[in-house]
Amino acid sequence: MASKEEALAAFASEKLVSSHSFNFIEGWIGSDHQLHTRKGEVAFDDLPDFLNGSKITEKPQEPGNSHRFRVLSFPRLENGRLKIAFPRETYQQIKRSWRLHDFTLEAFLNNNGILCSFNTKETKSILMKVTASRSVGFDTVSIVHHRPQNVTYVLYHSLEDEAGIFNSLLAHPERCLQPAFFAAVLYRCHQQRVERFRNKLDDEIVAIERGTKLGGPGRLFGHRYKHEEPTVKVDCDSTTQKLSYVQTELAVGSHTARSSLKCGEWLVKLAEDDHAEWKKAAGTLEAGKTELEILSADNTRKTLDEAEYVRRRAETVQSQLEAVGDRVRSQTAFLLNTAAQTQSDYSATIALETRRDSSAMKTIAIMTILFLPGTFVATLFGMDMFSWGSEEGVGDPKVSRFFWVYWIISVPLTLFVVVTWLLWTRRDLGRWGRVKSWKDLE
């Protein structure tokens, strides 16, 4: 019956992986009591024979000698959550042949990062997965060391820099006798990618700072760069959008850095335990043990030193990401304040123009008031209602007997206009009094 993890996992199809070859490393102690290693590729169809050790293209000096360690890597073939780079049957065969820990598949599916070890009388297992992110990768490893056979099996999955990890292992084959070294190499490569990701974020925020002319190291004290800085035209909207993108990536980077730091602490503790174990064993070695095995305690110390060094670098990266976050917030606040100031200036300009319009209207009203009486008098006396006599001054001025018609029509009409204006104004004032948002105007 399939486990819960196997039911959730999206295993690769045989059709997808059948055309791929997978890199491996093997190491063993030959008849000359020296450690020998070889790197190669194994086709998917040859995996069963490779796992059982029945098909080896290049024989060791003494085929009867056990391999001290075997490393196999499956690259990431598909993007997406819960994607596994090999078929279900292949995973079950690897797990059964190498006796990997039962939590191996669960660690492969984990996206939050994990490092843990499990010790029994006969085996020591280590599971490690970095915080899953498109920015820094999905590296995973399952390690099991069988004490009775003195054999270590290592299964890498979805390595972002497989060549770099394999080169690091081959550069120090004697340290591969310690199981924790395989996790330490993975951790160092992962931390290097975290630092490169931090550098990208820093470059983005530096470009924004140059564009806004706000910030930059040493500017508070009048420092200027020797080279002339390029002039960048800043669009407030696009820059704010870019800052939002940076802030999103920064959130991912900060979580990754914190997880990496925690993972480093676990790895240091694991390396300390290994160093203490190997140091204790080195004091009780039999005379027949090789010099290579005697030096194993020194190799565990090197792994411990490397893990502690990378962990301290992880601390500085986390601090740097916090500083980048402060700079992002500073730029965001500056742009928002600039936009608010621009809006305030625009509102002030509108208010000034409104005031000017009000002054102009007031001037027009005053001029109208000044000329209206004279206009009224001129219009009234220019009507046919009045007869002023002849141009020679003969005859008396007379008022038409229909003059009352003018007042009968004009007065009610004036009252009608005034009442209509009052009612209309009252209606508008009542409507504005009920307005609480722009939706009320629809």
TrEMBL record:
Record-given protein name: Cora-domain-containing protein
Ligase among keywords: no
Membrane topology: Multi-pass membrane protein
Record key words, sorted: Membrane, Transmembrane, Transmembrane helix
Major site of localization recorded for this protein: membrane
SUPFAM superfamilies in alphabetical order: Magnesium transport protein CorA, transmembrane region
Molecular function GO labels: metal ion transmembrane transporter activity
Subcellular localization: Membrane
GO cellular component terms, semicolon-separated: membrane
Species in which this protein is naturally found: Trematosphaeria pertusa
Superkingdom of source: Eukaryota
Regions crossing the membrane: 364-383, 403-424
